Amino acid sequence: MNISLFLMGMLFLGIFILPVFYIHWAQKNKGKLFLKHFTSTAAKNQVNVSESDMWNSRCIGIDKISGKFFALKKDNDQEETMLIDLKEIDNCIVSPTYRNIKGGKANKILERIDLTFTNKNSNIPGKNINFYNSNDNSPLGEEQVLAEKWASIINNYLQNK
Questions:
Q1: Pairing state of beta strands 68-75 and 108-119?
Q2: What CA–CA distance (Å, rounded) separates 121 from 125?
Q3: Pairwise CA distance, residues 147 & 93, whole Å
Q4: By C-alpha distance, which of 26, 56, 144, 136 is closest to 95?
Q5: Whole-number CA gyration radius for the chain
Q6: Best exposed site among 3, 6, 52, 142 by fewest CB in 10 Å?
Q7: What is the dihedral of CA 149, 152, 158, 161, to 10 degrees?
Q8: Using 50, 70 and 90 to split pLDDT, how confident is the model at 68?
């Protein structure tokens, strides 16, 4: 009686836990494949990524030897890349965009978080890398911290080159 009860308990446990492990494994494998695709796409653009980060369907990285920043955004079947030569960049800042809501000045909602690259030549407009957009229907997670981390990485590179 105890053995059959134990086996039934193990069977039910397996039925509920195995799918969780499978979903976790599938997401981890998907992340590895995306990172591999990012690295190969960067290599096609002569960028040897030395440091990178990935979130949602985006990946960014820097090649500290050649001084290039590379970003990849993949939504459904569309892929968007951006290559920035850091030799042409003066500085990098985090640019949050807020939207006022009813009820006064203090009531604001975060709408976007961008990493803004300011060009040394003021006649050339700066470039933005979007970290968060409220229109994408994804919850705000670590995007603010990640954007600040990358602004720091890029500004440190610019000061030490």
A1: unpaired
A2: 8
A3: 9
A4: 144
A5: 22
A6: 3
A7: -80
A8: very high
- Mean pLDDT across the chain: 86
* Residue written as token pair 């709408």: 111
The per-residue pLDDT for 128 is 92
Position of tokens 């939207």?
Answer: 99
The three-class DSSP label of residue 143 is helix
Give the global pTM.
0.78
Q: What is the DSSP letter of 141?
A: -
User: Torsion angle of alpha carbons 146, 150, 151, 155, nearest 10°?
Assistant: 160
**For residues 132 and 112, is the Cβ–Cβ distance under 8 A?**
yes
Question: Are the beta carbons of 132 and 146 closer than 8 angstroms?
Answer: no
**Residue 71 identity:** A
Tell me what the mean pLDDT of segment 132-161 comes to. Answer: 86
Give pLDDT tens digits for 111-125. 899 999 999 888 888
The full DSSP string for 59-128 is EEEEETTTTEEEEEEEETTEEEEEEEEGGGEEEEEEEEEEEE-SS-TT-EEEEEEEEEEEESSTTSPPEE
- Asked whether 80 and 70 are in contact (CB, 8 A), the reply is no
